[in-house]
Amino acid sequence: MSETDARAAVTDPFDVAIKRENDYLRRLDVTVAPPQVAAARRREATKIRKTTRVKGFRKGKVPVRIVEERYGPLIDERTVDALVNRAFREAVREHGLSTVGEPVVSEVDYRPGERLSFRIDVEVLPKVELARTGGFRVKRREVEVEDAEVDTVIERFRKEHAVLRPADRAPENGDVVSVAIREDGGEDGDDDGAAEKPYRFELGAGYAIPDVEAAILTLAPGEEGTFTVSYPEDFASGELAGTTRSLRIRLDEVSASLLPDLTDGFAGEVGDFGTLSELREAIAAELRTRAEREADEEVGETLLDAVIEANAFEVPPSLVSHYLDRVIDAPEGADPARIDEARKSVTPAVERQVRRDLVLERLIADEGLELSSEEFDERLSELGEARGKSVVEIRRQLAREKQLDTLRRRFAIERAFQFLIDRSDVS
User: Fold this and answer.
1) Which of 77, 282, 198, 188 lies closest to 274 in space, CA to CA?
2) By the 8 A CB rule, do 40 and 115 touch?
3) What is the dihedral of CA 44, 49, 54, 60, to 10 degrees?
4) What is the Cα–Cα distance from 131 to 362, expressed in whole angstroms?
5) Which of 31, 40, 180, 268 has a CA positioned 20 to 30 A from the CA of residue 291?
6) Which class is domain 276-426?
7) Which helix (H) or strand (E) element contains residue 244?
8) Where are the domains of the chain?
């Protein structure tokens, strides 16, 4: 519902009428009285006069009449710019506008010596009102930990404790290979100055693109060959994505991973476990805790969607565009049509993320869910204990990694989810 014009006399020389166009758009109609327009114009003329050089006059001593004749339109342009910028800054300050994006100026009506008027349209953060935050019904998924999940973790531990031994044979998936790769110049031998680059990685683990791994599997240690390789469309390097290249690949070494046997001794190497059964139980408990936390987060996100739907509001397009710029990091020279298509495809998810962030921020503020310094230190102490560190050590580590604010935010969101869960029927 549109609001009536809210007219307020912002600090002279401006008279500003603010109109709420929708949840996020504000229209500012500004008028400036003739005396203030004249004063601003004199200031701009003086600035130009101080820096103007005209033959026959010393710098800064050019007669006002000549300055007006030569620079009149420039003085007018600077006068309008100065008054528009000042009016916008003061309106934002006086009315507490949380602006996003750039203001749009239009309907400028200006004549030297007369009243100036103009319009500014600016997007602001919507005021989120949470009239309903509970009374929803959500089903929480059941948490089960399968033996196969525990086996997967144990296999990862085995790989971490594996011993590499040179293998005089063709490579297999799971082997660690040392290779040298360069672009092949063809029959004329022109490699375009491409340098040979060494790589060492595990085959079958996704460190190299499929065509490169397939080529390596055909080589024996010490052999090399030329292969036609197609790079995926989503390859990290924009220059290579979707292209086909001829590569010269040399296999220098093959190392087989000798995995440790699953014994009680292996359990002792992984951690403070006396038997393999104790290790499996500990892994299962950790997986269950993680799965339960993820299930709670899913419930929280579902409830958050319900809150967003129950308390609908519009989001500023410029804020969505800002998020899209962060999500779609298009390389230089990328096809504009493909970029536009990609932006459109993720826009609904980005709009949901914007609403999510705004609702969470309002919920945390309204319900006082931010952690106090003491509560935050208590959570850090729990985290440090799990990692074998004191609260001082874990704080220093997180500070070095610039993760303290992120962690504080995560804890507050956990509280917000729990607040929503407590106010709804979760079964």
Assistant:
1) 282
2) no
3) -160
4) 12
5) 268
6) mainly alpha
7) strand 244-258
8) 6-124, 163-258, 276-426
Q: Indicate the SS3 state at residue 57.
A: coil
Beta-bridge partners for 291: none
pLDDT tens readout for residues 189-222: 455 556 899 999 999 988 999 999 999 999 999 9
Amino acid residing at 339: I
Residue with tokens 């899209």: 324
Radius of gyration in angstroms for the set of CA atoms belonging to the chain, rounded to a whole number = 33
- Give all strands of the β-sheet with 14-20 in edge-to-edge order: 6-8, 14-20, 25-32, 116-124, 99-109
Residues 259/151, Cβ–Cβ less than 8 Å: no
Q: Is CATH 3.10.50.40 the right assignment for the domain spanning 163-258?
A: yes
Rounded Cα gap, residues 197 and 299, in angstroms: 48
**CATH number 3.30.70.20 given to 6-124:** no
pTM over 0.85: no
Given a contact cutoff of 8 angstroms between Cβ atoms, the answer to whether 36 and 12 are in contact is: yes
DSSP state of 23: S
d(CA 184, CA 172): 25
Q: CA 392 → CA 365, 370, 379, 384, distances in Å?
A: 28, 21, 12, 9
- The residue whose two tokens read 């401006």 is 14
Q: Which residues of 51-73 are buried (b: 16+ CB within 10 A; e: fewer)?
A: ebeeeeeeeeebeeeebeeebee
pLDDT at 12: 55
Token pair 């590569």 is found at 247
The DSSP output letter for 63 is -
What does the alpha-carbon distance between residue 180 and residue 99 come to, in Å, rounded to a whole number? Answer: 54
**Upper half-sphere CA count for residue 355 (Cβ side, 13 Å):** 22
Give the integer Cα–Cα distance in Å for 409 and 91.
32
Backbone angles phi, psi at 244, to 5 degrees: -120, 130
15 secondary structure, DSSP code: E
pLDDT at 192: 52
Q: Report the pLDDT value the prediction gives residue 166, as an integer from 0 to 100.
A: 93
What CA–CA distances, in Å, run from 228 to 183, 212, 247, 253? Answer: 10, 9, 6, 22
Q: What is the pLDDT of residues 66-94, one digit of tens each?
A: 878 788 889 899 999 999 999 999 999 98
> Any bridge partners for residue 227, and if so which?
247
| The pair of three-digit structure tokens given for residue 22, joined into one six-digit string | 């929708």
Distance CA 244, CA 234 (A): 13
